[in-house]
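Both lines are given unchanged directly below:

***
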Amino acid sequence: MIKVCLVNLGCSKNRVDSEAVLGLFQDKNRFEIVVDENDADVIIINTCAFIHDAEDESFDTIRYLETLNKKLIVLGCLVEKYHDELKKKFPKVDLFVGFKEFSHLSKDISNLLKIDDLNDYNIFDRIKEDNAFSIYLKIAEGCNHKCGFCIIPNLRGTYYSLPLDELVSYAEKAIKSGVKEINVIAQDTAYYGKDFNDKNINLSILLKKLDDIPGVQFIRVYYLYPNEITEDIIQTIKNSKHIVHYFDLPIQHASDRIIKLMNRKDTYKSLSNLYNHILKEIPDAIFRCTLIVGYPTETEDDIAILEKFLNDHPFHHIGVFTYSNEKLAYAYHLKPQINEDIKIDRKERIMRLAKKISYNLNKKMIGKQFKGIIVGEENNTYLVRTVFNASDDIDGDIYLKTSKNHNLGDVVEIEITDAFVYDLYSKEI
């Protein structure tokens, strides 16, 4: 019996890849999946290299796990970025496999472990790492956008959509097995199907098919690039039975000058028009955005424009990152680069505004009722996920105090009773 432990680093898209890697080891007569690295015979690390902080975490994790003297396999974006350098830096690692080499991952691991008939890597043949009631459905890989700050196209290649029928089939099987929540992810979900040049395949059509699956309770769509959102997508979400009215918009900035330097197609006006149009069509829409401050050449005027945009277009959830100067990105060569202390100061400034906006919007939630799903228990209080908050703890929590006993995955009806900066409290109805 070979004991296998997988350590996943990075985003939810990486998590899907990790679950597919675990799918190689489904033969319970030969393999046991363990969570403690010390108990493992083989440790697999799926790395992230999107920004410096992610790189540092990956390096630190490899460095620590080398000390355990186990069979050690390092996968993913860090390998794609630094393959030859990593071999020199970490001589105790037994195998390095970049993302673009996953097609022969099964063969490489089989050779390393001297075993036969290992399952092939298949994104639709996964062992889930987390709870049984929720899945991430990765609908595409790679990216066709050439954003000035981003190296994903270098690491993951160009955008390619996964087959619609296979996505729906996988989701149907998951729902039949007890899954209640589908989280749709890709680098840009709104772009889905455009690489097929087939009018019968796009995000709206996929969402409608997912929405019709018997037993599904919640569908959430992440990473909708603003300039790729069509009216059909908005109307599909509006008229669906199970797609939550949650719009995750990675706008990154609101200053036209900075947006242009980021090589993105939005403008202050287009972002404003999109926000207002969604709100007009779906008045109860929940908005989330991600922002980057400290982009090369950014000025105080640019930050002031961003602040004005956020004040005029309040997002319920705002994630703020400081610009990470990546060598493979276009912006690496832009001058002047912004001092790190200034980046941090601007991040803190935007976060103070974000807290104010969040608190004001949260107070408006008091008295409103939602359908939600039990996702955890903490100090005899349940954690509930509704339309209002996303998975992976990227948003605030909703706490539920109730006399009833619930299991993870139970669907409940709640009413918001109190609000804080990020979190909400509720009662069962």
The chain has a mean pLDDT of 95.
